[in-house]
Write a structure and sequence with these properties.
Blueprint: E1 2-5, H1 13-29, E2 34-35, H2 37-40, H3 49-61, E3 64-69, H4 74-86, E4 89-95, H5 105-114
Parallel strand pairs: 1-2, 1-3, 3-4
Helix pairs in contact: 3-4
């Protein structure tokens, strides 16, 4: 299974369209099982606790993580941390903002992706 890290709460229509097309391709063209958070987890959760637990279980069961990085997405930060801690293979699909000169999560993603062949 491929887990998609992406914005959910404040996703733009353009981002949503792009990510849904990518998920469609993975599932229908490449016959991959995909965990797509806005579709696969009920987002109606007063505290977010259940959402985080569902995502953790999905991340434990996935083989790879594909990332549409939006630095403004707080849930993406949380999911990235879980994927990192679980040692999952990751692949950056798209970054929605330019990287900055200082340290950043986008730099972490790129370093992690390239370490030990994790982009495969």
């Amino acid at each position: 299974m491929i887990y998609i890290i992406c914005p959910v709460r404040n996703i733009t229509k353009e981002q949503q369209q792009e990510i849904e097309e990518y998920v469609y391709q993975l599932e229908n063209k490449y016959n991959q099982d995909v965990h797509y958070p806005p579709r696969d987890v009920n987002q109606d959760d007063e505290t977010g606790f259940n959402i985080c637990n569902y995502h953790l279980e999905a991340l434990k069961n996935c083989q790879k993580v594909h990332i549409f990085w939006d630095n403004n997405s707080k849930g993406s930060h949380f999911d990235l941390g879980m994927a990192f801690a679980l040692g999952k293979k990751i692949k950056l699909i798209k970054a929605y903002q330019q990287d900055i000169k200082e340290k950043s999560y986008l730099k972490v993603i790129k370093c992690y992706e390239n370490s030990k062949g994790f982009s495969n």
